[in-house]
C-alpha cells in the first residue's frame, strides 16, 4: 500500500490509503498519486499541506452556495446540539415540515408536496416507485413500464441504473428491472457543436416517445424520466422545445413525466428548478446535492397534488405509501437545508446565475481556440469541453488533465470520457471565472 502523509487524526493507520474502496475511482491510480483535500472555504478547497484548489465543480455539483458558509455551519452545529435524530415514520419534527414547505414554494405549478430521502439515487428510486404505485392505486396496474434516456444518469440504485443510459453503470446489473425502455439522447455534434445554451436542433428527438407508445401501447407506460441537462455524460443541455414536447406527449397518453433535477436544481441553470427555465411542469422532480449545498446528505422528490392526493385520501390510520428511509428528513439535513435556502434567497444566487450566464458562456467558449477541442457547451453556470482522445483509449487524456489540473494548476474539474465538465459554486466572481478558464486553457495546452 502507498504511504501518504495524511492528518494523524484520520484513523489508527493514517498513512495507509488502502482500506477505502473508493467509489467511481480508479483506486490504484488514485492511491499512487492522491488528490487529497482536507479543508474548504467559499470557492476553494485546501490540501492537507495548505495548498488552495479552486473548486470549479462545486464539489460534485453540490456546493452551490460555496463551501463552509457560516450560516450553514452554525445551523448544523446548533441542530447537532439540540436534537440529533428523530424518527420520520409516525413521528415528526418541525424542521421537516418547514423545509418541505420551503422547497415546495420554490417549485413551479402544483408541485407542492415533498418526499425526503438522503441522496439523488434514493430520490430516483423513490420517484420511480411512486410512479408505479400511483398507476396501480388508480386501477391501472398494467402501467409498469419505465422510460429513461440514453446518456441519462439517475444514480446507482437498481431503479436508477435501469432507466439510466450509461452502459458501464448498467452492463453488470442493469437488466434486473424488467420493463424498461429508453429514448434516444439529444446530442448531435454535427448539428449542435459550440452552442451557447440550449441547442437549436434536437426537439424532434422527443418524437421517439410517440414511437415507444406505438411499440408498447400507452396502457403499459408508467413514466418517463429525464434530466433537463444530462450532467454525468458531459453536460448536454436540452434542445430548444424538447422538454415541452415531451410534456405534450406524456399528457396525451397519461404518462407521468419526471425531471431529475439532482444537478439542475437549486440554481445551477439560474432558477430554483430548471422546470421553471423551460416553462414545463413535470409530475415529479427529484433533487439532492444543492438542497443543502452538499453540507449534509439530503435528497427528495417533489410531487404534484394529483399524485399526493392519490395516496393520501382518508384519515384512516393506515400507511399511505410503503416507502421511506430511517434518515428521511434527518434533523441535521433539514437544518442545513433551511440555512442554505435562506442564503440562496438573501444573496439572490439563482438570479445571479442568470446575470452571469452570458459572461460565463463568452469566457468559456474562448477555449475553442485550443488544440484538440471538438465541442464546447455552456448552459446556466455549467461548461463542458470535449477534446480528442488519445490513441491508448478514451478518458486517459482527461484523467491526465484532471491530475495536472489538481497538482500543477490548483483547480478541481470533473471528467466524463474525454470531456472536462465544470460547474463552480454560484458565488463565483468574474475574476474567478477568468481564473477557471485560464487554468483550464493551460491544462489543455499541457495534454496536447
Ligand atoms: N441524478 C443525477 C442527475 C445526478 O447527477 C446524480 C449524481 O451525480 C444522481 C442522480 C445521484 O445522486 P447521488 O450520488 O446523490 O445518489
From TrEMBL:
Gene Ontology biological process: biotin biosynthetic process
Domain of life: Bacteria
Cofactor: pyridoxal 5'-phosphate
UniProt keyword Transferase present: yes
E.C. code: 2.6.1.18
Transmembrane segments: none
SUPFAM superfamilies reported in the protein's UniProt record: PLP-dependent transferases
The UniProt record lists the keyword Glycoprotein: no
Keywords from the named record: Aminotransferase, Pyridoxal phosphate, Pyruvate, Transferase
Pfam families, alphabetized: Aminotran_3 (PF00202)
A molecular function (GO) term: pyridoxal phosphate binding
UniProt name for this protein: Beta-alanine--pyruvate aminotransferase
Source organism per UniProt: Starkeya nomas
Amino acid at each position: 500500500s502507498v504511504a501518504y502523509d495524511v492528518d494523524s487524526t484520520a484513523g489508527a493507520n493514517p498513512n495507509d490509503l488502502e482500506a477505502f474502496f473508493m467509489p467511481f475511482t480508479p483506486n490504484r491510480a488514485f492511491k499512487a498519486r492522491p488528490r487529497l483535500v482536507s479543508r474548504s472555504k467559499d470557492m476553494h478547497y485546501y490540501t492537507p499541506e495548505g495548498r488552495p484548489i479552486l473548486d470549479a465543480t462545486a464539489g460534485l455539483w453540490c456546493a452551490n452556495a460555496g463551501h463552509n458558509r457560516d450560516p450553514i455551519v452554525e445551523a448544523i452545529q446548533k441542530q447537532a446540539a439540540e436534537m440529533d435524530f428523530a424518527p420520520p415514520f409516525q413521528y415528526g419534527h418541525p424542521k421537516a415540515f418547514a423545509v418541505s414547505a420551503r422547497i415546495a414554494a420554490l417549485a413551479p405549478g402544483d408541485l407542492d408536496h415533498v418526499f425526503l430521502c438522503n441522496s439523488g439515487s434514493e430520490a430516483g428510486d423513490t420517484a420511480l416507485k411512486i410512479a408505479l404505485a400511483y398507476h396501480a392505486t388508480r386501477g391501472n396496474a398494467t402501467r409498469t413500464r419505465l422510460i429513461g434516456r440514453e446518456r441519462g444518469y439517475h444514480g446507482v440504485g437498481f431503479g436508477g441504473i435501469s432507466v439510466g443510459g450509461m452502459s458501464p453503470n448498467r452492463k453488470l446489473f442493469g437488466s434486473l428491472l424488467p420493463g424498461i425502455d429508453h429514448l434516444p439522447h439529444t446530442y448531435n455534434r454535427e448539428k449542435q457543436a459550440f452552442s451557447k445554451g440550449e441547442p437549436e436542433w434536437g426537439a424532434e428527438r422527443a418524437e421517439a416517445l410517440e414511437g415507444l407508445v406505438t411499440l408498447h401501447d400507452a396502457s403499459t407506460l408508467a413514466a418517463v424520466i429525464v434530466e433537463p441537462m444530462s450532467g454525468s455524460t458531459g453536460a448536454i443541455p436540452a434542445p430548444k422545445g424538447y422538454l415541452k414536447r415531451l410534456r405534450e406527449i406524456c399528457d396525451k397518453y397519461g404518462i407521468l413525466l419526471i425531471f431529475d433535477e439532482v444537478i439542475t436544481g437549486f440554481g445551477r441553470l439560474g432558477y430554483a428548478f430548471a422546470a421553471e427555465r423551460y416553462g414545463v411542469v413535470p409530475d415529479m422532480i427529484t433533487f439532492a446535492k444543492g438542497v443543502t449545498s452538499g453540507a449534509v446528505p439530503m435528497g427528495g422528490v417533489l410531487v404534484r397534488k394529483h399524485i399526493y392526493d392519490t395516496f393520501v385520501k382518508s384519515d384512516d390510520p393506515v400507511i399511505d405509501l410503503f416507502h421511506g428511509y430511517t434518515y428521511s428528513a434527518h434533523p441535521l439535513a433539514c437544518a442545513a437545508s433551511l440555512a442554505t435556502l435562506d442564503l440562496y434567497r438573501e444573496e439572490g444566487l439563482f438570479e445571479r446565475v442568470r446575470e452571469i450566464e452570458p459572461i460565463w458562456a463568452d469566457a468559456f467558449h474562448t477555449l475553442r481556440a485550443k488544440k484538440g477541442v471538438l465541442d464546447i457547451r455552456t448552459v446556466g453556470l455549467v461548461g463542458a469541453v470535449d477534446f480528442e482522445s488519445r490513441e491508448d483509449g478514451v478518458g486517459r487524456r482527461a484523467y491526465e488533465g484532471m491530475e495536472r489540473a489538481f497538482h500543477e494548476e490548483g483547480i478541481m474539474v470533473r471528467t466524463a470520457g474525454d470531456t472536462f465538465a465544470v460547474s463552480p459554486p454560484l458565488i463565483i466572481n468574474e475574476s474567478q471565472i477568468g481564473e477557471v478558464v485560464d487554468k483550464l486553457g493551460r491544462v489543455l495546452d499541457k495534454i496536447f
